Amino acid sequence: MSLAYEAGLVPLVAEADVNAPWNGHDTRVLIVAVLGIALIVTLIVAFKVHAFLSLTIGALFVGVASGIGAGAVTKSYEIGVGSVLGYVGVLIALGAMVGKLLADSGGADQVVDTILRGRTGALPWKMALIAFIIGIPMFFEIGLVLLIPVVVLAVRRTGARAMLLGIPALAGLSVLHGFVPPHPGPLAAIGVLGGNVGITLALGLLVAIPTVIVAGPLFGRLAAKWVPIGAAGAALEVAEGHHEIEGEHSTPQDAPPGTVRTRTPSFTATIVTVLLPVALMLLKAASDIWMSKENALYPVLQFIGDPVVALLIAVLVAMFTFGTAVGFGIPELSRKIGESLLPISGVMLIVGAGGGFKQVLVDGGTGTAIAKIAIAANVSALLLGWIVAVLIRLATGSATVATVTAAGIVAPLATGESTTYLALVVLAIGAGSLFFSHVNDAGFWLVKEYFGMTVGETIKTWSVMETLISVMGLAMTLLLSTFI
Questions:
Q1: Angle at 101 between CA 245 and CA 352, to 5 degrees
Q2: How far apart are CA 429 and CA 180, in angstroms?
Q3: Res 423 pLDDT > 50
Q4: CA gap 410, 408 in Å, rounded
Q5: Transmembrane segments in this chain: where (predicted)?
Q6: Last residue of a domain, which of 282, 313, 341?
């Protein structure tokens, strides 16, 4: 039963009875859904309309054409936006705060410098590890901008081929972006499907680690042979410029006290801060599985392991380890936290609009119709979610749009399933949302320009790596589903 219907705001056009006989309304809403998605894709790809506006227009079209009614469709959309952003938006904001403080304090540089010490032969594996650690609190684009110049400098110093070190770093960032909370895609899918963040995080790490190994260091060897380039592109210029002026900016003489860092956080403090919310959420998930509710420790773990509380604790700890402990004053920390929210506004709007589009699909009966087909064809929510996400990803280039839309479409098929199965559905959708990044994806062009590759070389390396992550992620998810 939809949120809008339960609130008494929207007449439910099609009751969520997936075992009812096929009818004319089911055919109608499927055609409308296809036209709605096509409209969204056309607006984004052909007319370059922002994804938020495109999703909003598509949602209103689908709602009216499905029979919800012009007066009620906006209520359905608004409730969908609120239901997703009311939870996901807070988590995205808190994660952005930790990521901003990590970058500005020099903590990310500390992780890189510490892990890169030692044998050069292990560099591909170290690059994957660095990306995995940094990628937990940071959005993909921020991690990419931060890490790729470091990769190019390492390539220049060691004489290695760029893709040997670049692919592992890209794989680590991309896998975290698609599979692991608190990244927007997984969080949005969890919110839509009613999943559990802690269980999704635990299973996401199980899927992510072997996927990074295969698509990162192992595939990186092959990619380096296919595209044997060295240090080049925009990343080399950024890295060289950064190191030329690093000393000048690290200790400016005329800066007011508390506005610049005077120290760098230690490697231990950085790792503890970054992994703290992950550990707290995993403790909550473990208590759900293995601890009795009568245990006095159970409510404590439930509270501190709640994603909002865990990330809030991480922000407060980061304000010390990445803030006052390195020389920033409270006013400067407040300014940085405010700045961290600016880049995520677009992401949050897209996630919210995706939730609105999902709600209109549910209230119009599209999800029920698709569930009927899936049941008749014996297609699981796991596989259907992956396929739908792949199609939308190929069409729009947006992993987030693909995730929230696919989650809404398969939601009726996953109704009544366990939280563990819902977590696997989230991961399958996340895997599909990463399939074959190409010219309609901003990440494609970032990678191309940073490494100085041609379009063809970017497809042979980055695009193939994304596809390998997608297929490997689906395979791991299906494998885990056999044990649950």
A1: 120
A2: 12
A3: yes
A4: 6
A5: 29-47, 53-72, 84-103, 123-155, 162-180, 186-219, 267-287, 307-328, 340-357, 369-392, 459-483
A6: 341
> Quick one: angle between helices 123-135 and 140-158, nearest 10?
160
Banded model confidence at residue 318, pLDDT cuts 50, 70, 90: very high
Q: Which helix (H) or strand (E) covers residue 50, if one does?
A: none
pLDDT score recorded for residue 227: 93
For residue 237, the model assigns a pLDDT of 56
Give me the pLDDT at residue 366, please. Answer: 78
Main-chain phi, psi angles of 181, to 5 degrees: -60, 150
How far is residue 469's CA from residue 467's CA, in Å, rounded to a whole number?
Answer: 5
Alpha helices in 68-117 (DSSP H): 70-104, 107-115
Decide if pLDDT at 10 tops 60: no
Give the closest residue to 214 by CA, choosing from 449, 482, 474, 484.
Answer: 474
- pLDDT tens column, 191-242: 889 899 889 999 999 999 999 999 999 999 999 999 998 877 655 655 554 4
Round to whole Å and give the CA distance between 295 and 289: 13
Three-class secondary structure of residue 279 per DSSP: helix
CA distances from 151 to 118, 132, 169, 234, 379 (A): 16, 14, 8, 12, 42
pTM of the model: 0.73
The angle subtended at Cα 163 by Cα 159 and Cα 169, nearest 5°, is: 105
Tokens 């409730």 locate to: 79
Per the CB < 8 A criterion, the answer to whether 67 and 33 are in contact is no
Structural domain of residue 435, as residue ranges?
Answer: 27-81+350-481
Report the distance separating Cα 209 and Cα 112, nearest Å. Answer: 19
Same domain, 241 and 148: yes
- The pLDDT value recorded for residue 430 is 95
Number of domains, the chain: 2
State percent of the chain over pLDDT 70.
88
User: What are the two backbone dihedrals, phi and then psi, of residue 416, each rounded to the nearest 5 degrees?
Assistant: 85, -5
Check whether residue 146 and residue 185 sit in a common domain: yes
Domain boundary among 316, 341, 366: 341
Same-domain status, 362 and 329: no
Greater confidence (356 vs 318) lies with 318
Helices 442-451 & 234-244, crossing angle to 10 degrees? 60
The predicted pLDDT at position 212 comes to 96
Question: Residue 453 belongs to what H/E stretch?
Answer: none
Per-residue model confidence (pLDDT) at position 256 = 77
Contacts for 244 with CB less than 8 Å, ≥ 6 apart: none
Tokens 């705001």 -> residue: 9
Cα 75 to Cα 3, 72, 83, 93, 411: the distances in Å are 11, 5, 12, 25, 20
Residues 141 and 98 in one domain: yes
Name the pLDDT band for 367 (thresholds 50, 70, 90): low
Cβ-contact 135, 173 below 8 angstroms: yes
